[in-house]
Amino acid sequence: MGNLVQAELRKTTTTGLWWGLLIPTAVLALGWGLATGLLGQFFVDFAASGDVDEVSDFLGVTPDQWKVSLFGMARAINISTIFPMIFGAMAISGELSRRTITTTFLTAPSRVHALLAKMLVYVLWGAIYGLVIMLFLGIGVVATSDSGQLPDAGGWVMLTLVCVLSSILMTMFGVGVGALIPNVAGAIVLLLLYFLVIENVLHGVLAYLEVPAVIGFLPNGSINGLTGSVSVDLFLSSAGVVPTEIEDVLRAIAGAAGAQDWWLSGIVFLGWAGVVFAGGWAVTQSKDIT
């Protein structure tokens, strides 16, 4: 297994794909971070202008203490992890479509060993992408936010952990889809269409039907709930007394509408990734390699 992992690692580092997707990932995270800080500062300035004094008195916290940047950070993580998912999707689909995976399958003890080696390598890449996302997101937010809007040291650590975890899970999901669909373009289009369009439409339908809890058990809803729930929890820890109705609104703003606790959201998405990977393994196991 060690030799297989080393071989898979060489495959990813000898091509330009890893940095070709890492660059736009960093740029997107930085852009979201800058925008998050600017919008948060605008909101705080507006809230401190005297127009919403009643809200401040009600919550018991002045506007400059509202860590509103947390909501934008959650959204930034959610959208930025699309790139490691695409990176993972190309792990097997590209090799299957070009038949470069033949040597791997013929020299590995079994196809299961080969797929597990790929998964381990892409878990590592998922963690790397997650750290890069958090680094550039943090730079953008810090550059445009006041200190009162930023999380404390513990909050930064928690956000970094869930960002890395989210990136790893999204990469694993992508690997599974890549094994299911041995066509690079098909796998990428399907993932983008589902995560950016289809499930968002489902979210609107479920909200209209007044069953928002179902959202938290869908793939995109659960992975968004992982980061969104943490952001909301960190915000509420310093936001004073917040009614339940407002909490629901805050969760929706953070992209965690209908989501469960962060750890449960992570388990739900891990289940989806496991199902997709099992399906990809079954397809690959029965596929003739020439």
TrEMBL record:
<feature type="transmembrane region" description="Helical">
    <location>
        <begin position="155"/>
        <end position="181"/>
    </location>
</feature>
<protein>
    <submittedName>
        <fullName>ABC transporter permease</fullName>
    </submittedName>
</protein>
<keyword id="KW-0472">Membrane</keyword>
<feature type="transmembrane region" description="Helical">
    <location>
        <begin position="120"/>
        <end position="143"/>
    </location>
</feature>
<dbReference type="Pfam" id="PF12679">
    <property type="entry name" value="ABC2_membrane_2"/>
</dbReference>
<feature type="transmembrane region" description="Helical">
    <location>
        <begin position="68"/>
        <end position="92"/>
    </location>
</feature>
<feature type="transmembrane region" description="Helical">
    <location>
        <begin position="262"/>
        <end position="283"/>
    </location>
</feature>
<keyword id="KW-1133">Transmembrane helix</keyword>
<feature type="transmembrane region" description="Helical">
    <location>
        <begin position="188"/>
        <end position="209"/>
    </location>
</feature>
<feature type="transmembrane region" description="Helical">
    <location>
        <begin position="21"/>
        <end position="48"/>
    </location>
</feature>
<keyword id="KW-0812">Transmembrane</keyword>
